[in-house]
Design a protein that fits this description.
204 residues, alpha+beta, Glutaredoxin, Glutathione S-transferase Yfyf (Class Pi), Chain A, domain 2, four-stranded mixed beta sheet, 8 helices
Length: 204
């Protein structure tokens, strides 16, 4: 399998962590989708990463679809429950974490996208997205409480998604003081960073 992505993308990192936890072999191909000479559309018509290209050339895209597929490839380290409320809980955690990343990325693009003049940027839009980020962090903290992991006592996709969101915020928004406001989230991220799958994929 070939994974097309960028080391700075939290969605790509989520897939890479799942692959490491599942002990799956793959080739990582870095792609800058913002470059004029990007070829991502030949694999993903939406022009986004991550994109997983199968051995037969078929492409699977959207990180949620990819990680769900990967979890079926090996019984090692099952990350998503197969059915019922437990499955819905893990997928909801993933949706929450992805939503925080979605909002943060929209805020960053509005503030930094090179093809937009400063006069065209909307601070109101940025503020709206950052409210979503803070509300998402608050919900994460409340949901985690004093549990060792987001969905019980074992690592799951819930923790991987949340860890990727928190790691990306530290990378791109160091001014957001979420660690002091939500110390249980900081404790979770520190614990996750002890795992090689997280340490080896720190955004850069």
């Amino acid at each position: 399998m070939k994974l097309i992505g960028a080391t700075a993308s939290p969605y790509v990192r989520k897939v890479r962590i799942v692959m490491a936890e599942k002990k799956l072999d793959y080739q990582f191909v870095q792609e800058n989708v913002w470059a004029d000479d990007t070829h991502i559309s030949t694999s993903n018509p939406l022009g986004k990463v991550p994109c997983l290209v199968m051995e037969g050339g078929e492409a699977v895209f959207d990180s949620r679809v990819i990680v769900e597929y990967l979890d079926t490839l090996s019984p090692v380290g099952k990350l998503i429950p197969s059915q019922g409320r437990e499955r819905a809980e893990v997928k909801t955690w993933e949706a929450l974490a992805d939503g925080v990343m979605d909002a943060a990325i929209l805020a960053r693009l509005e503030a930094t996208w090179a093809h937009r003049k400063d006069s065209e940027r909307s601070q109101a839009w940025i503020d709206r997205q950052l409210i979503k980020v803070n509300d998402g962090l608050k919900s994460m903290s409340q949901g985690l409480g004093d549990k060792p992991y987001c969905s019980g006592i074992h690592l799951s996709l819930s923790d991987i998604a949340v860890g990727c969101a928190l790691g990306w915020l530290e990378f791109r928004f160091p001014d957001i003081a979420w660690r002091s406001e939500y110390p249980n989230l900081g404790k979770l991220l520190d614990k996750l960073m002890l795992r090689p799958s997280f340490a080896d994929t720190k955004p850069s």
